[in-house]
Amino acid sequence: MCGIVGAVAQRDVADILVEGLKRLEYRGYDSAGVAIIDNENQLNRARRLGKVQELADALQAKPIAGGTGIAHTRWATHGAPSEINAHPHMSSETIAVVHNGIIENHEQLRSQLQDLGYHFSSETDTEVIAHLVHHELKSAKSLLAAVQATVKQLEGAYGTVVVDTRDKDRVVVARSGSPLVIGYGVGENFIASDILALLPVTRKFSFLEEGDVAEITRFEVNVFDIDGKPAVREAKESEVCHDVGDKGEYRHYMLKETYEQPTAIRNTLEGRLQGNMLDNQTFGAGADAIFQEIEHVQIIACGTSYHSGMVARYWLEALAGVSCNIEIASEFRYRQSHVPKNALLVTISQSGETADTLAALRLAKEIGYRASLTICNVAGSSLVRESDLAFMTKAGAEIGVASTKAFTTQLVGLLMMTLAIGQHHGMSVEKQNDIAQSLMTLPNKLEEVLALAGSIEELAEDFADKHHALFLGRGDQYPIAMEGALKLKEISYIHAEAYAAGELKHGPLALIDAEMPVIVVAPKNDLIEKLKSNVEEVRARGGLMYVFADASANFSSDDTMKVINVPVCDDLIAPIVYTLPLQLLSYYVAIIKGTDVDQPRNLAKSVTVE
Ligand code: AGP
Fold first, then answer.
1. Which sign does the torsion angle of CA 571, 487, 180, 206 carry?
2. CA distance to 290, 302, 324, 412, 415, per residue, from 313 (Å)
3. Distance, CA 129 to ligand 1 centroid (Å)?
4. Which residues does ligand 1 sit against, CB inside 6 Å?
5. Separation of 415 CA from ligand 1 center, angstroms?
């Protein structure tokens, strides 16, 4: 959730660290800090409450020199957002530590350390790491050994980076549950929680694995595995471009990423579909044998990714004839579930690091799932590394906390997965052709949808004074209504709920009045007449509706209803097409409300803690 950057170099690293933090700010943004060892072997620390820019301004006013440093942008878990709780945390002016994750036994460790005479200056769980390393160094022969001894005492999740003024050209890092990536430079090396932070300084990276501890100097990287044995973590060139952190002509990343969807989907399709045939590398080696054998699919995800999985359930059962369940990762991981015979576990995640989803995958492996597949946007992420099969969405880096292009490319991946599984389960050639052709029309269709932005912006005005909103959909548009509601609440802070429209009369109708806008997702499909009945139920109770429908659905605007005409599209891709107007609606409502669109309050992009 937080962001980490570290560097060991000959040059001053403050600017590199701050630029890295700016690129990671979407992960956590309540406070930020750096600690740098200068040429006199002194640790100099600067921390600020608020955005990274506050820290950058402080460093501009009072620069800190030095070639070894660590930096952090925080999303508070233990201890309120404040300067004293901001990382790095220090022990005795010699040790400085940054940490992502949660140390679950911090209270017990804190009391042990207090008994040993350590004084705590923050409310964080992280500070125990700094004092523990300091304590271990009294007997350990090196910083590496002290960190190895420290992590053995930690319970919970951590990605942590430690520096010591008495060993100034070295950083020691440890990973368990929170990702860390090493960046290789020339005569300088780096560490970060995400490659995005380091793209201005290197393109060569290796990922640490669970339980790894590593020491990094300017010329050397030594990695030790969970058993303390030397380990090789292969370094690879990244294909991600350097300017991914750039908003370009757009006011917000979210808007840029919304407009990038036609391209992101073209990239996700490219080279994978030839006619109705999928390239056999699309889901990785061995996919055909697994797809042939499976009799059931269990999908696991969180948030927006969960909504894409909900759509996939409609597709898999209707088109591929394979039974499918979907569950939120944080529920699945803590209940005893029945494992169907020959079941494929599918995780869906933009980041590939979501703690609950990762824990659910690990559990599924233990309880007997036949195989695992992840639909993911980040190469080298934990979910990709730990799953048997992976489908990489090619959305490109998504910086806005509100997921847009990651969601629609996930849906593309899931429809391709439906095609691939269906090919092994008797799907007709005609149906295969329909899916393939619909997918190929998608990027152009989305360009048409984006042309609606002006009219949606006007519509957004109606929401400026609203406190609640209800989203309705049926069938595979029900999850799209849920995603629309999540987007609206996430970035505009308007309370929004989604219902399967058939559920209205079972409770939510009681909420309907002129103050409760009702957004209806209504493409012309087999359920349109049923949906129209639900629309009438709302109209009869004085509700004000905003209906997204194609012209053939025959809705017309009047006193009770504003109709936004969405281009006609094939039913198969309608969930993807109807997502974009809802993204644009949330965006423009948030603009009117004046919220922080890209970094909404209390949220973080990558949820690496429970
Ligand atoms: C999306 O707008 C949200 N910010 C959030 O629900 C997100 O989808 C969820 O945290 C899951 O993340 P993941 O896809 O990286 O696993």
1. positive
2. 18, 15, 6, 14, 10
3. 29
4. 302-305, 349-351, 354, 357, 401-403, 490, 606-607
5. 20
Strand partners, 47: 33
Q: Is the model's pLDDT at 542 over the cut of 70?
A: yes
Residue 244 in domain = no
**pLDDT by residue (tens digit) across 178-189?**
889 999 999 999
Q: Are residues 107 and 222 in the same domain?
A: yes
Q: Are 213 and 143 in contact (CB under 8 A)?
A: no
User: Hey, which bits of 336-453 come out as E strands?
Assistant: 343-349, 371-376, 389-392
Kindly list the catalytic residues: 2, 605
- Counting ligand 1 atoms within 8 A of each CB, the residue from 194, 302, 347 with the most, and so the one to mutate, is 302
The distance in angstroms from the start CA to the end CA of the chain is 10
Ligand 1 centroid vs 330 CA: distance in angstroms? 13
pLDDT given at position 28: 66
In-domain check, residue 609: no
Ligand 1 atom 9 nearest Cα: 303
Considering the domain boundaries, does residue 242 fall inside one?
no
pTM assigned to the model: 0.82
The alpha carbon dihedral of 75, 78, 84, 86 has a sign of negative
- Contacts of residue 147, Cβ cutoff 8 Å, sequence gap at least 6: 133, 136, 160, 162, 172, 174, 213
CA-based angle 59:129:386, to the nearest 5? 95
What pLDDT is attached to residue 244? 63
Q: Is residue 284 situated within a structural domain?
A: yes
Number of domains into which the chain is organized: 2
213 and 277, same domain (yes or no): no
Cβ pair 471, 501 in contact under 8 A: no
Sheet architecture: strand order including 343-349: 323-328, 296-301, 343-349, 371-376, 389-392
Supply the pLDDT for residue 245: 62
Residues 357 and 298: their CA atoms lie apart, in Å, by 13
- Structure tokens, 30: 């309540």
